[in-house]
Amino acid sequence: MTDPKNPENQDEPNLDDDWADAMAEQGADSGEEDPWAAALAEQEAAEQASEQDAPQEETPQPSQAAGDQVFKPLDKDSGNSGMRDLEMIMDIPVKLTVELGRTRITIKQLLELAQGSVIELDGLAGEPMDILINGYLIAQGEVVVVDDKYGIRITEIITPSERVQKLNR
Fold it and tell me: Where is the composition biased (Low complexity) (predicted)?
């Protein structure tokens, strides 16, 4: 950088002045309110308010205009928007799986399977079956038969901590 007070460097152009001129020109050309300047002003106002530790009245800030340009204002019936958002996901299909048990077999044993073969599972008779939603354990239940159709009666909802313990199975 050059020192304007030093006569030896007067031949070199002053880069600080060029930079300031370019920034001023850019600001004059934009014609719009600078959202960054508005955000910085809002932050500065918030810091001053926290330093004073006095409750402030809600007065319109210049930064609110920038916020209104970026974010849509909330409607008066925004309390119902939560229900509306929930209704949007109600029709999303999920895969429910009921698991009797698991086992590991070799490829040789898999190729030897035929009609009537019995595969031993690690689940015990009478033990509750795992109910999985999209592959995640969410509940356990027992098998029921209603009108010649199988179903499952939920006997226990799995808590998140229990889910972590069951992952080791």
Answer: 37-53
Would residue 27 count as lying in a domain? Answer: no
Per residue in 120-134, pLDDT (tens digit) is 888 888 888 989 999
Tokens of 7: 């006569």
pLDDT of residue 55 exceeding 70, the answer is no
Reported as half-sphere exposure (CB side, CA atoms, 13 A), residue 28 has a value of 6
| Bigger pLDDT: 42 vs 84 | 42
CA atoms within 13 A on the CB side of 76: 0
User: Which structural domain range is residue 124 located in?
Assistant: 91-168
SS3 83: helix
How far apart CA 131 and CA 137 sit, in angstroms, is: 6
